[in-house]
Amino acid sequence: MIDWFTVVAQVVNFLVLVYLLQRFLYAPIVRAMETREKRVLSRLEEARQQREEAEQERAAYHQKRQEWEAQHDQMLNAARKEANEERRRLLQEARDEGDRLTQRWHESLRRGKEEFLHHLRQRVSEQVLAVARRVLTDLADADLEQRMVAVFLERLRQLDEERQETLRAVAHASQQQGQVIVQSAFPLSPGQQQHIARSLREQRFIGENGENGNSEVTFETAADLLCGVRLVPGNHEVSWCLQSYLETLERDIARTFEEEEQQGEQQGEQQAEQQAA
Amino acid sequence: MNISPDTVIYWQSGFFKLNATIVFTWLIMALLVGGSWLITRRLSTDTHMSRWQNRLEAVIEMIQGQIEEISRQPPGRYLPFIGTLFLFIVVSNILTIVPWYHPPTGSLSTTTALALCVFVAVPVYGIAQGGVVGYLKNYLQPTPFMLPFNVIGELSRTLALAVRLFGNIMSGSIIGAILLSVTPLFFPVVMQALGLITGVIQAYIFAILATIYIASATRAHQGEESGRSDG
Description:
The complex is a heterodimer. By secondary structure, chain A is an alpha+beta fold. Chain A has 5 helices and 4 strands. Chain A has a domain at 142-242. Chain A is 78% helix and 7% strand. The longest helix of chain A is centred in the N-terminal third of the chain and has 137 residues, at 4-140. Chain A is rod-shaped, with a radius of gyration of 60 Å. Chain A starts with a helix and ends with a helix. By secondary structure, chain B is mostly helical. Chain B has one domain. Chain B contains 6 helices and 2 strands. In chain B, a hairpin with a 2-residue loop joins β1 and β2. In chain B, α2 crosses α6 (187-230), α4 runs antiparallel to α5 and α5 packs antiparallel against α6 (187-230). The model of chain B is unreliable at 227-231 (pLDDT under 50). Chains A and B meet through α1 of A and β2, α1, α2, α3 and α4 of B.
């Protein structure tokens, strides 16, 4: 059954086949597979590295974005704060402006009031003067100006001693320079002038020298007196005039206005408080 | 009808003769080597490859997997021997469907030759793995009294290897021939198909047994080594 030559031949054939297949089949195929495996592994490794890098990048970007958001929030807060401050400043400005306007309005009101009072004073003085003149003329049959001079002189006479002394000293000093001035709202007649000069001399406000006595005294007309007579030796003065009455009147009127105003303001404040409550 | 292709002699000169077994063996060798050369001529190491390369790689990978699974060792050293056994036997058996083909594996001379190769390969691999002493110690396992039985076992399994393959393939051919004379139409075709399965299974069994024998020769030594290291 067994042909030993064939057996030997087949053994040889088989060994040759092993060699040839090793040479042409196994070695190249295994090599190719190993190479591919390595390549795939390297690619996988590469992919893993890339993924890691991408992950790191992502983390970095995430952090960056968070930082940016934080910064953004910060900036937004700062802007909001600034806007609030700006708003507050503008409100303050507006309030200041309002205050200023109110003040200006008050000022103009005050000025208007003053103007009105001044006007009123003038009108009242004119009226009072006219009425007084008529009344004096009608009742006493006296010349109003003469009466004024008389009152003036009477007041001069009734001054207390100390005041008289001071006035004398000043008048004497002024007299050296010919500076004793008598002001009146109306032109004085020569008789009246003489009368005044004589009285001044009697009371030793002016010296004895000079015959007619007029030369030491200068008579002036002063429009602001409205109605009255004033002795002006230097800085001191003795006067009787309507102006003082009128000033009193004006003060009274002004006080009345102020009281009214204050009442109005208090009422306004109370109303405002009630509204606020 | 010839029982063995050895008896089909084309040319003879004294001791030398050219019978069907040797001629068809050469044919199979030419087929295998030529096919391998054609395919491995242009191998791709990329992920894209030719269809044939893919098939060949699948086959090689399958063989490697089987070797690794059975021997529990890296298949690299055993691949040429075991792989060639399997490929030669499987091609030889599959070609039985070709008319006027005489499978070399149907010759007891061929199977004996292959069994002898295994018989020699077992100690060769064993000695390569653990040295001469290490290999020879296997015959004294588990006790020196087992030496004769071990030697007998070694011889008998080689004989069994040769006869098993020869018997299966030869019987397939003979059954096919007999059936062809009895029921000439359809039944032989079925038997031929069955013969193909048997042929592939026999190739698988032969290769697996060779692997087991070689692995047992090398693994015993490994086990000893690991036992020592454990101790």
